[in-house]
Amino acid sequence: MSNFEQEKQLLEGLALNDREVVETIYRDNYPVIQSFILNNNGDSDEARDIFQEAMIVIYEKAVSGNFELNCQLKTYLYSVCRRLWLKRLHQLQRYGSLVENIEETVAVEEDLELHEKHNTDFILMETAMNKIGEPCKSLLDAYYLQKKNMQEIAADFGYTNADNAKTQKYKCLVRLKKLFFAQYKNGN
Questions:
Q1: In the prediction, which pLDDT does 52 show?
Q2: Do 87 and 9 share a domain, yes or no?
Q3: CA-CA distance, 11 to 24, in Å (whole number)?
Q4: Which of 57, 77, 107 is the last residue of a domain?
Q5: Are residues 93 and 122 in the same domain?
Q6: Is residue 111 within 8 Å of residue 80, measured between CB atoms?
Q7: What is the mean pLDDT of residues 5-34?
Q8: Least confident span in 35-39, 104-108, 151-155
Q9: Per-residue H/E/C for the chain
Q10: Which pLDDT does position 98 carry in this prediction?
Q11: For the whole model, what pTM was predicted?
Q12: Residue 120: which CATH number?
């Protein structure tokens, strides 16, 4: 099997959240990232955080289905970690001169910007969910996170039938959207 095919399988496995694939990526790449961060004003906790953030970026790319890797996975992962670490150092004002210890790096700014936008949107949504109040918060949680159907929700929340539960879910969703977009408009 060629290196290209192996890397493609790793990305497919990552998109499927295959535990063995995730462990393989960690085992093969984390020591280099940890060494890079430890040698550049960081500690092991920060190395774990940065590596985890980079894994999320790559996972989101893999799940999208339209990501084409134009270099080795380790190179791409290193580049994402390096950019995240530089940004973190800049935020913490611990920026020093970083020494390149891997020949190849890849421009990943667009991926990081998209990842940061998603994170911001998730934070706004979480804030909106916390402001929505009960029973809306629990009802939306039951439907979207616990994957309960309308019959179960009607029984759990005391609605007379699934149609009433569906109507209430719709009203809650409208409220959530209003809260979310009010915050989104104020934040941008």
A1: 92
A2: yes
A3: 11
A4: 107
A5: no
A6: yes
A7: 88
A8: 104-108
A9: CCHHHHHHHHHHHHHCCCHHHHHHHHHHHHHHHHHHHHCCCCCHHHHHHHHHHHHHHHHHHHHHCCCCCCCCHHHHHHHHHHHHHHHHHHHHCCCCCCCCCCCCCCCCHHHHHHHHHHHHHHHHHHHHHHHHCCCHHHHHHHHHHCCCCHHHHHHHHCCCCHHHHHHHHHHHHHHHHHHHHHHHHHHC
A10: 47
A11: 0.52
A12: 1.10.10
pLDDT of residue 42 exceeding 90, the answer is no
Residues constituting the chain: 188
Q: How confident is the model at residue 27 (pLDDT cuts 50, 70, 90)?
A: very high
Cα–Cα distance, 54 to 69 (Å, whole number): 15
Q: In sequence order, which residues have a C-beta less than 8 Å from that of residue 165 and are 6 or more positions away?
A: 139, 150, 153, 154, 157, 159
Per-residue pLDDT of 84-121, as tens digits, reads 888 888 777 754 444 444 444 445 566 667 667 766 77
Number of domains the chain is built from:
2
